[in-house]
Amino acid sequence: MPDIDRRRAWLxxxxxxxxxxxxxxxxxxxxxxxxxxxxxxxxxxxxxARALDxxxxxxxxxxxxxxxxxxxxxxxxxxxxxxxxxxDLVAEHLPLPDGAGVTPHxxxxxxxxxxxxxxxxxxxxxxxxxxxxxxxxxxxxxYAREAARVLRADGVYVANLADGAPFRFLRAQxxxxxxxxxELVLIAEPGVLRGRRFxxxxxxxxxxxxxxxxxxxxxxxxxxxxxxxxxxxxxxxxGDARPVRDEDAEPSPEPPAGAFGIG
Length: 263
Known about the structure:
Layout: E1 9-14, E2 17-23, H1 33-44, E3 53-57, H2 63-71, E4 76-81, H3 84-93, E5 102-106, H4 109-115, E6 121-126, H5 141-150, E7 151-163, H6 168-178, E8 183-188, H7 190-193, E9 199-206, H8 212-220, E10 227-230, H9 231-238
Parallel strand pairs: 3-4, 3-6, 4-5, 6-7
Antiparallel strand pairs: 1-2, 7-9, 8-9, 8-10
């Protein structure tokens, strides 16, 4: 976990792949493109600066919890991370500031979710990778059902996923969440959506209309602009994909060599 510049900015790598970037002096700075897209969702789920109850599945170096703590002061956040050694490492080298309102938990994401109270979160952020793949038990409609149960009626689910053409994994994930949520949004770079390369895609689900206009403006202004798909276009993308049952669940696909960099 090397120091990468003269500020207190750190890059965390897991198995050689960039996993988290943290700027302790400017926690609202989101370096990675997919992280910025998650941040755009967090910025638009409620009026600016409103405190929220946020559940993070997957902690990394606590980049997004730090972001929410700075942009939405007073928020109450729980972070579930299965890698206890990583939690210890972050606590030692990248401690959260006093009063951040962030409580870490060393636990399996789905087990913790199944034990969490119903209607207890305004936002659920899922960014869980075992190495470079989303674990199988976090890809089924049973998992999606637990996420829906924990969210409040106006809550928002947002997940970082990764896939490439023909998008068998991503389409099945969307199909599963479509059985539980009325509104779906997918955010990804045009090159990824056109099947030209493997990459990250942000899935957003809610029972209420999402501010797709604001998301479109924000993602279009990024250094690597993304498209915001929803409505009829997204239904066409899902096509005849079916939700994944627990007994059929598989991890997300293995990315090709060199698929992920620091962009």
